[in-house]
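Morning!

This is the sequence you dropped in the shared folder:
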Amino acid sequence: MRTLADLGEKLIHHRWEDDLTVYILPRPGFVRRYASLTAGFGSVDLHFVSPDGRAHSVPAGVAHFLEHKMFEDPEAPVLDRFARLGASANAYTSYEVTSYLFSCVDNFWEALDILLGFVQEAHFTRDGVEKEKPIIEQEIRMGLDSPHRTVVHNLRRLLFGRHPVREDVAGSLESVRDITFEHLELCYRAFYHPSNLVLYVAGDVDPAEVLEHVARAVARRRRGPAPGFRRVGVPDPGEPAERAVEQRMSIAVPLLALGFRDGAYPGGSDLERRMAGEMALEMVAGRGSELFHRLYREGLIDDSFAASYACGRDWAFTVFMGRTPDPTRLGERLREGISAALTGWREADLDRCRRAALGQFISLFDSLEAPAYLVPELHFYGLSLDDYYRVLQQVDSHAVARYLQEALRPEQAVTSTVIPH
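The structure's back. Tokens below.
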């Protein structure tokens, strides 16, 4: 089985005991350099237990809110400090991680010190928390005007009755107003310990120099053993409570999302399920599939149509989505196509999709940023890029058949539609 070394790629990995982990991807000859520092804490982490056994629950959107407040600094705004070095900085929160990042041509070491510093030395205040609420509320209101956001949000709320993945990453207007300084402080203490942080560095750098630089930063900021907080899962009914939802918005063409909850999902560390799902969807409804071309010829879909499989530690769902003049007819035709795919695909189809997936994986290394999204995610599942590449090559017809039979069951289907006023 081929490994990253066989591709001519080498990802250096080092972890300091009770402290952060670093991955380094050397890219000789690249002009820019890139770094991200990622915490294993995302929007679904709303329930956890402290080492003394106390249970804690926080409002939806707290991880995203904390991301905003991490840039607060009494001396100078963090983004201004990056800008003065000519570095472009940003951050994002997803379902399961929060990541802070920058890229630059010059002053890399100074920018890296800022990144390692502000993420590990929070300065948010009570007044700052209250002042941030209107800003995040406005961000949420802007999202409410997005048909794409609306159709997916409504779909998740159909698929999941209680699991936090049903909530938007930013939370709701109501939940944001409930977030307090104490909530942020608790979550920072629980999930921003260095042992739950992953540093990724890519570019024309000497790995030994990076490790030496980070080692000095680690020595300056020792915070002791990990605090030992434990996430608590949320039991969720196995069947959707409702089957369909429709919302009117100011759009020209209706938007349909047909979703399936994967009730047999084995968990985030099972790469085979994830890759089998992605390959199966490419076979069933990808741009090279017979179903896609048939629906396109019939005028039921346009170039916006796509199918995707989203999954995490303990949740997974599939969505087929796109603009359509006839949502009811498209939903029917998609169900027919999915049913036919249970027995109508060929091994040659799987080979084609596997080759395409391998090509996409190899192309990750043409970018500094692309591996930065995958490497920390795999790390928090106890996996590596080598694991990812190995499983990608091993996905077989049995894994694809299991996905089609278990993850696209008709009784799990729900539809979310946005239609014109």
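Headline: The longest strand covers residues 316-323.

More detail when I'm at my desk.
O.
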